[in-house]
Design the sequence.
């Protein structure tokens, strides 16, 4: 089991069960966090929209998150609704966001107000 360090945004969480579904920066499969996946930092409370850093591994064809660390609470609390609505946030970037239906990769940065330097720093 190879661990990879990753940044992501919590899309859904259940505070009572300490479970979460995480959108990963590499645009791959979603990662799932449960208390049994462990955390060397103690189990932080994760809420939808939190920007987190975590370790990810593949177990039984499923991405599992461990050792989550909250980098910014409520970074994008409306992200789950925006994804459901299918309408990305308009970027202040001069480069237009391409809405090509043939593209299968969604640029996570388009949902945040990040400068190009911040995008680079968060790319892992």
Sequence:
């Amino acid at each position: 089991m190879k661990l990879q360090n990753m940044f992501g945004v919590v899309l859904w969480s259940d505070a009572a069960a300490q479970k979460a579904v995480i959108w990963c920066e590499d645009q791959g499969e979603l990662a799932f966090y449960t208390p049994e996946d462990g955390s060397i930092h103690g189990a932080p409370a994760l809420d939808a929209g939190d920007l987190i850093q975590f370790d990810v591994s593949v177990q039984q064809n499923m991405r599992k998150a461990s050792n989550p660390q909250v980098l910014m609470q409520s970074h994008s609390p409306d992200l789950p609704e925006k994804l459901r609505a299918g309408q990305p946030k308009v970027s202040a970037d001069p480069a237009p966001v391409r809405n090509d239906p043939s593209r299968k990769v969604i640029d996570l940065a388009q949902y945040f107000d990040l400068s190009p330097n911040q995008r680079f720093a968060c790319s892992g």
